Amino acid sequence: METKGSSINQEAVITPQQLFEHWQAHRGLTRKVIAIFPEDELFNFSIGGMRPFADMVKELLAIAEPGLKEIATGKKEELNENLMVNTKLQLLEMWDKTSETLPGLWEKLSTDAFQKSILAFGQYEGTIISTILYFIDNEIHHRGQSYVYLRALGITPPPFWER
């Protein structure tokens, strides 16, 4: 057992590849939710002042690829949620394109970079790891909102553990 002031073991609890696979599993589940969401409700349905699910998906798209590109290249990216998308098919195509691009960006990250500071989109200050965890947490949050929407529409969402 470590005592206060002793050196802390710096071995990783999770590898960068495991973290990426975890994120991609969440992205796969979110894609399933987009696919089962009724198109006529996707862009309009809301509860309690929350945004329609399509707007939440646009936010996730605006964060994932541009955010990881900023992290991987150091080139500043603008957060742009105003994506010109108005069909479920377009959302799914953008989601799939992003999913194809992320592995190449992830490969550019060095293991020692995860503790470096970043100001993502000129707004979110933290380490690279905290920023990536924010991307994942934000997606889970919005997917949870979509589950409420689906249940209100009488649709059973996919089990959250099926990633």
UniProtKB/TrEMBL annotation:
Keywords: Metal-binding. Gene3D superfamilies: dinb family like domain. A divalent metal cation binds at residue 142. The keyword Metal-binding applies. It holds the Pfam family DinB. Belongs to the DinB family. It comes from Anditalea andensis. Coiled coil: none annotated. GO terms for molecular function: metal ion binding. InterPro entries: DinB, DinB/YfiT-like. The keyword Metal-binding applies. This is Damage-inducible protein DinB.
